[in-house]
Amino acid sequence: MAQRSPRTNGRTQGKPASLGALLVVLAALCWGLSGGIGGILISEGWSPTVVSLYRGLIGLVCVLIWLALRPAGSGMTSHRLWFWSVIAGIGVAGNFSFYFLSIAEGSVAVAATLMYSAPVFVYLASFAFGLERPTLFKWAAIATVMLGVILLTGIHDVGASDITLVAAGAGLLSGLSYAAFIVAFKYAAPHGSPQAILVIAFAVLVGILASMSDAQ
């Protein structure tokens, strides 16, 4: 029995790890599909704001179902949870909007590349708030990411590049907004469940984008 127990525990511990990896893969797949479908819709005449709004609505429905299935420990009565979740919602609204604007002005590949400069902004924000201590290795990592962005997008050669300043700027703002979402989510997490945070954030996103769509 003593020999069987570690193997049983290993299997038990392995399942969550395998499930986590699968969920990450599915998330990446869905993210890629949403960018491709968004690019198709934009080419058909949809505005980036409307595409972002529908994406946010679908996300809101999904996290509402998640919260309904697992309501325990939501923390919805916490003022701190609401504050940081609203900030996260503003961040994800900017992320979606600027991402699809970058696609409209450039391409999916450029938008995705620039958006994933988000870790750079997360590091810089962590330095500013004292959450991380800047080191030579971290600055080198930031410089490497930025060099990779420049080389992948070709924005260093304006004459040979089809990338507009609007596309590049929107892509970087998408990454900055994503970083704001990550930081706000981190601060909200101790006060409630992930599904509760995401419900508030996506509700804020839908409200912002719906008002922007009405204004247009």
Q: Briefly, what is this?
A:
The protein is mainly alpha-helical and 216 residues long. Helices cover 80% and strands 0% of the residues.
Summarize the helices and strands and which ones pair or pack:
Elements: H1 4-43, H2 48-69, H3 79-105, H4 108-115, H5 118-129, H6 136-153, H7 165-188, H8 194-215
The structural class is mainly alpha
State mean pLDDT (0 to 100 scale).
Answer: 81
Major sheet details: none
Total beta strand runs: 0
SSE arrangement, N to C: HHHHHHHH
Number of domains: 1
Describe this structure in words.
By secondary structure, the protein is mainly alpha-helical. The chain has helices spanning 4-43, 48-69, 79-105, 108-115, 118-129, 136-153, 165-188, 194-215. It has one domain (37-215). The radius of gyration is 20 Å and the shape is globular. The protein starts with a helix and ends with a helix.
Key features of this structure:
0% strand, 216 residues, mainly alpha, 8 helices
